[in-house]
Structure formats: C-alpha cells, structure tokens
Amino acid sequence: MPPSDHNPDASHLDAIAEPSRPQRADGRRNQARVLEVAFDAFAAHGVSVSIREIARRAGVSTGTVTRHYPTKEALFLAVALHRIKQLVHSAEEIAAREHPTTAFFSFFAHLVRQSAADHAVGDALIGAGVDLETAASTAIRDFNAALTGLLTRAQQAGAVRGDADNADVKALIAGCIARAGDATAQQRMIEIACDGLRPGPI
C-alpha cells in the first residue's frame, strides 16, 4: 500500500472522523493526531494495540482518545472502515482492468499482501477483535459484493471451481497471512491457494 494510504492527509482524517458536534480547533487537531497514530499502530500490531499505547504515541491522554472514540473497538472501526473502502476501490480497479480469468487471482494476491503489510486489514478481514459485520454493515457489504463479483465472474469464465465461496476465500487468505514474515513462503502460499481454487481436471 502506498505511503499516502498509511498516513492519510488531513482531509481524509476529517472525512472519517465524523464528529457528532462542532469541535474546537485543538480538539480537531487532537482527533486527527489520534487517527494518524492509530493507522500506524493498528497497521503494525493489529487490534491488539491498547488505547494507552496509542495515546502515548499521539502525545495525548487516554481521556483525549476516549473522548473521540469511547472504546478501542470504535477507534479500530474508524481505521478499518477506511482500509475496507480502499480494498473495494482496488477491487473495482482490478475488475475494470483485467479479464475475469485473472482479475480474481490478482485481487486475492492483493488482499494477502495488504493484510500481511497492514495488520488492521488482516484483522478486519478475518473479524479479529471487533464484529465488523454488525458495526460496519455497509462497508462490509460493499467489500463482500466486490469479492463475490470477482469470484462469480471467474467461476463463470471457468477459472475458479464452482463450489468456492467468500468464506473459503477468506479462510485461504488467513492461511497465507500466517506466512507473512517470509516473502518467499508467502508467495508460495498464494500460489498454492490459487492452484487449489482452480477447477480440477475433468
């Protein structure tokens, strides 16, 4: 993921902050700083990072963090939503650029690499630590629709076995993420998973 995705600019932070009431300038700056730090912290450690640690890195009190995000899950959700929307955009770009026989596999590899590089993506996709299906139904629905679209078109083109579904794909992604510390092993896992998703000999 490009550096700009890891460190969103102020306009992106404002867009995902969605304050419920007008804030003073210092409040907006603190909220933007918390989000900036949260992006990096969740990317490095996933949902396991604590509010206390995020506050320490942001140079604010834990009370300042919880004033904007009452729970760690709420803060993780703000970060995860941004990441999920980026994945949906990537799926749309790949679908428009590539043939259905290759688009699904390109997106699969993209999901694995993004999940390995950014733990917030991986935790969001496998539902670790927060129920995104409930808390972020619209974003998750958009992501699932994008993944299903690529998968269905690949199946219709005969590139993917017909009995595979989104749950199978996410489980395979989780398996590939497990080899994230070794780029060669991770690429091998991607190839093994993709080979398993292709139709067998008739």
UniProtKB/TrEMBL annotation:
Biased composition (Basic and acidic residues): 1-12
Span list, region Disordered: 1-29
Residue stretches making up the HTH tetR-type domain: 28-87
Pfam families in the record: TetR_C_43 (PF21597), TetR_N (PF00440)
Protein keywords: DNA-binding, Transcription, Transcription regulation
Residue ranges of the annotated DNA-binding region, renumbered to this chain: 50-69
PROSITE patterns: HTH_TETR_2 (PS50977)
SUPFAM superfamilies per record: Homeodomain-like, Tetracyclin repressor-like, C-terminal domain
Signal sequence annotation: none
PANTHER family: HTH-TYPE TRANSCRIPTIONAL REGULATOR BETI, HTH-TYPE TRANSCRIPTIONAL REGULATOR RUTR
Identification of the protein by name: TetR/AcrR family transcriptional regulator
